[in-house]
Design a protein that fits this description.
The protein contains 3 helices and 8 strands. Strand 1 and strand 2 form a beta hairpin. It is globular, with a radius of gyration of 14 Å. The chain is α+β, with helices and mostly antiparallel strands. The protein has one domain: Aspartate Aminotransferase, domain 1, CATH 3.90.1150. 29% of the residues lie in helices and 27% in strands. The longest helix has 17 residues. It has a 6-stranded antiparallel sheet with strand order 1-2-3-4-6-5, covered by helices on one side.
Length: 130
């Protein structure tokens, strides 16, 4: 795990730290070839320069985000933003369903929209073929 992500997790309150540490562990295990870093102040994992998963501590919870998550067609994920992202929010580590998270992370590898080139394409997203 990237040292900046470890530092991010360490800075959180006890409950958020436990959630973040668990999410980071699961994401690292499921995406071993991903580059991870703190991006726009939050931990994010990238495949070939494309953001696929990350999380952010919010006021009342920890938000897990999948940039292409709306295409996963998973009932546990909620649409986020105006593109293809979807989220899940956690208020305790115990709410994390490891089996569910592993399934989502598998889909994060297989289903990707090209966020890396969204500016070049003037806001148009194109689905990547895997």
């Amino acid at each position: 795990m990237h040292k900046d992500i470890t530092a991010y997790n360490r800075e959180q309150d006890k409950v958020s730290k436990a959630i973040c540490t668990e999410l980071a562990k699961e994401i690292d295990a499921a995406l071993p070839k991903a580059e991870s870093k703190v991006w726009h102040a939050h931990p994010v994992w990238f495949l070939d320069g494309n953001p696929v998963a990350g999380y952010a501590v919010r006021k009342a919870n920890v938000q897990l985000l999948f940039w292409s998550g709306q295409s996963f067609e998973e009932p546990g994920l909620n649409p986020e933003g105006s593109f293809k992202a979807a989220e899940k929010r956690y208020t305790s580590k115990e709410e994390i369903d490891s089996k569910e998270l592993k399934r989502w992370l598998k889909k994060a590898k297989a289903i990707q929209w090209d966020y890396k080139n969204i500016v070049k394409r003037k806001g148009k997203l194109v689905r990547l073929e895997k």
